[in-house]
Amino acid sequence: MSELGVDVAAMKSAAPAFAVVAADLDEARSALDAVVAAEEGCWGGDQFGTTFSGAYLPGSASAVGGMSLVAGAMRELTATLIEIADRFESIDSSLADDMAGGL
To answer: I want to staple 22 with a disulfide (CB 3.0 to 4.6 A). Which of 17, 42, 71, 88 is the partner?
Structure first.
């Protein structure tokens, strides 16, 4: 027979760390947004400037968007870990009650 063990308290206490990472990513994304916005157009409108802009702007938008996606995933992970721990705890308690009632 196999056995499954989950440290519910450890899961619940570790989960908020992912929210902290999400907040840090949000802060870094905001700083990156400010830098990109401040530098927009500084490369000029000549051939070299427009060529640079054509490569730089989509890449910077992708990087900023990616940071937002990762931050969102971290927030979801926080909630999911807590939900999994709560469900496991509930199921475990219910099974224990059922087994105790049968004795």
So the answer is: 71
Token pair 């990472």 in the structure block, residue: 21
pTM: 0.73
Q: Is the pLDDT of residue 103 over 60?
A: no
> Other CB atoms closer than 10 Å to residue 25's CB: what's the count?
20
The amino acid present at 12, given as its one-letter code, is K
* DSSP structure string for 29-72: HHHHHHHHHHHTTTT-SSHHHHHHHHHHHHHHHHHHHHHHHHHH
User: Taking Cα atoms as reference points, which of 5, 22, 8, 3 lies closest to residue 87?
Assistant: 8
Q: Whose CA is closest to 25, among 60, 59, 74? A: 74
40 phi, psi to nearest 5 deg: -60, 125
